[in-house]
Automatic annotation (TrEMBL):
GO molecular function, one term: peroxiredoxin activity
Lineage of the species this protein comes from: Bacteria, Pseudomonadati, Bacteroidota, Sphingobacteriia, Sphingobacteriales
UniProt-recorded name of the protein: 4-carboxymuconolactone decarboxylase
Record-annotated Cupin type-2 domain positions: 72-135
Domain of life, per lineage: Bacteria
Amino acid sequence: MAIRKELLFAICLCLFSANQSMAQVSKNNKIYNMTSITGKGQPAPKENFTGNVFVTMAVNPDDNLNSTVGKVTFEAKARTNWHTHPHGQILILTAGVGYYQQKGKPIQVIKEGDVVKIPVNVEHWHGASHESAMTHIAIVPSATNGTIWMTPVTDADYNKDHQSSAQPKPLKLTEAAIKNHEELLPNYVSTMQKTDPEFIELFDNFAFDEVIAYGNLDTKTRVLMILGSTIASQALTEYKVMVGGALNVGATAIEIKEVLYQSVPYVGVSKVLDFLHATNEVLLSRGIELPLPGQSTTMPQNRQEKGLALQKEIVGSRIDEMYAQSPPEQLHIQKFLSANCFGDYYTRTGLDIKTRELLTYSMLISLGGAESQVKGHIQANLNVGNDKQTLLTVTTQLLPYIGYPRTLNAISAINEITGKK
């Protein structure tokens, strides 16, 4: 039912002018009749409408144009009676949200820009939605006998579909799921509680009860890992929800920003940029002033040296082997890793090394296709004090967000590196 912009513009040009009443305008020695449909209009006949409805006619029968055209504005919950048009009708929605229903068929939601083409002699009604006013241009291709009015649309018929969607059955959530969800997202109501209540029951009871019950990871760390995972998975919608959740459970704006910055060398800036903008929007909406205090500890003169030192501290002597075994034309990548990945990012304050390594692991298992790097950073996590149980717990917390294949791949890598202990 979407209308082309060119058609809508042409219709607007025909219907609007600067004068309220009929006038004649001379241009190029031709006479044009013009009228205006600005303003609220006149109240519609109560016998044909329910609620407050206002009509402004643009083309009347006495214009001799074989059609009638008018602007009709419905306040919320107002609607026409059931009626038919012996010559059909066209509705062009210009504002708001409304309903349209043909006899025997479900109510359809119509909105600005939609065009409703009503066939000849089809019994129907149309009007505003429960929450929004609605305005449409009504076109009837007849100057006489354009509408046959019938009985009013009862409240029961008007409310039927709305009641079933606006009053869903209470969700069957466990006490733990409710408690954990409220801790993270107090008073948050997902739109899917109306559209997909059964799915929400399944997901929330699993993700916010069974999964959280495994291991002993504090809430803030868990949410920071989910943030890193959603960035790697390019799950922007879930990420924005979780940024608010992270702030709710005590994560600082600096910690959230550091999760973003830490993701750049692993995910790439082209994938991170939208998440950075989204984060700024959330922080500003919470009254947090930007930019945040800087966290960098290196300068161009020492980033290579400090990065390499920290890289060796985290990864171990294997770094020397990687440098020694690198072909000359590829050695620059090893230097980039030391100076950029570790020197520019790992050396920053705002998050400690153990958290940064857990984040890196979370992002790598969420990316998929990075099994070699996953194994390397499992060992790095062990080196900095994140034991096997911590890695299994983080992997479990990410399961609802990354799915079973990547979760099982991660567990296989953990078992391989730790010798299945």
